[in-house]
Amino acid sequence: MPPKPKLSLYWAASCGGCEIAVVNLHEKILALEAAFDFMFCPCLLDTKKKDVEALPDRGIAVTFFNGAIRTEENREMARLMRRKSQLLIAFGACAYEGCIPALANLATREEIVASVYLSNPSTHNPSGLTPQPETHTPEGTLHLPMLLERVSTLAQEVEVDYFIPGCPPEPHQIWSVIDLLIQGKPLPPKGSVVGAGRSSVCDECKRKKDDKKIRKFYRTYEIVPDREKCLLEQGIVCMGIATRDGCGALCPQVNMPCTGCYGPPEGADDQGAAMVGALGSILDLGDTAGLTEADLIQRIDAIIEPIPDCAGTFYKYSLAHSILRGLAV
User: Which member of 57, 197, 271, 308 lies 3.0 to 4.6 Å from 245 by CB, making a disulfide possible if both were Cys?
Assistant: First the structure.
């Protein structure tokens, strides 16, 4: 019997939810194991980096790479897995768009280190110690991968074949991709987003939608929203209008707004810009006759003032992937 094709799952700068999503395939994970030699996953298996390095180039059939590129080690492993994999798939929002780790791009590396190790109210560090690339001990020299200047998506570091969005991806969407691989069916063109839809979450959301005119925004704890009416029409920032479908509109189903984890819909290059443009078209400014530009700005500011963190709201998952990428450095 010929050897099974090899499959790997790597974890870079992310929370580990993508590994849990794979386990949530439940009994289908047995079909995955039957079709592939699941040979490298630091979270689940004891395979070492040297074992991957020993493989011939392209010796792994497919790698699901989750996590953004935050450290030198993340970048090194991205390059290694690219070289060793026939298919490299950006798996989940962190690898695809940078996700939560990429919000660090709103500060410099030095500011982040100072905030975490020096000026944090809960940190006691009288010696002002910060992580160093090398620490010499009697037992030997310890090496620590350093933070890169900014967080990148996987595709900003290496060539990526496909992208599976989600934080984490939904198990049924993961399986839709794995099933294609198992059955050997034709894959979409390289560079495609797979395991998701092509439109927006609004299209699969069953809430009632009318003309959207918003006079005030609310934080989610400030009101109990109507369970049937569009959340955005109730003044709750719901990113569904600027987010790719495919999740089943799970958050709106339980009376919570979409936060945008599936990234921009097809045809939208920048999720935050798409959301800002959508909101700009539905703000109800009232009678604007005779208002100066300053008056209009003041009225707009009054409406959006309850949104506490525009960058963290509109670019929660997509800052590194956006046209902004973060602060200019």
Answer: 197
